[in-house]
Fold this sequence. Notes:
6-stranded antiparallel sheet, 14 strands, alpha+beta, Immunoglobulin-like
Amino acid sequence: MRRICTRTGMVSIYFSVIATLLIQASAGAATYAFDFDAVFDGAAPAGASSQVTAVFQDAGPGAVDLTISAPGLTPGEYVGAMFFNLNPVLNPTQLNFTRTASIGSFSAPSIAKGMNRFSPDNQDRFDLELGFSTTNGKQFGPGDSIEYVITGILGFDAADFVFRDSLCSGTGLYYAAADIGGVQKCNQTGLVAVTSSNELATVPEPSTTLFFSLAVGLFAGLRRFRRRVS
Length: 230
């Protein structure tokens, strides 16, 4: 009787562990790339079609990496502010931004949070505003980049930033927006927006191969155990 109970218990444990590992191995890191290339107010920047880019990527449970860069800006142009949305069922004031890397001599932006609190044009409303310096020598311009890890909300992920802005009359058109300064000869400003989200291929977590290897090893151990108790 003890042998049967022990065998049954071990079988249950093995299969429980294998199932858990396989579920974890199936998870991946989703990535969403935003190209700020749709001018909706003011002057059009002179650079490439994607003046600014933002990439949101899952970095683990309840953590998202954000990378902002300005590959399409031309000398003299700079980012004055950036605006993002969050899943409306979540509270943006709970988010924590921790800078992890940067390239360039610009000043780190201020970060303001609040549901539908921020508008670049007094019409479209966003939940997050990153305010960059407009002072010469401290501006976020061509070749600059900054990275953050975002935490603070249990279970949220990169997909929670893929929501359109709000209007008084309903949902707007834009996933994000940016205020570009130093445009053209008269130092004008222009507003560029993200009108579509580009979901990149899901990247398997680095531990996926390890999980499958462990699962195979456990299964082999189970077979040897069953032969011994048979």
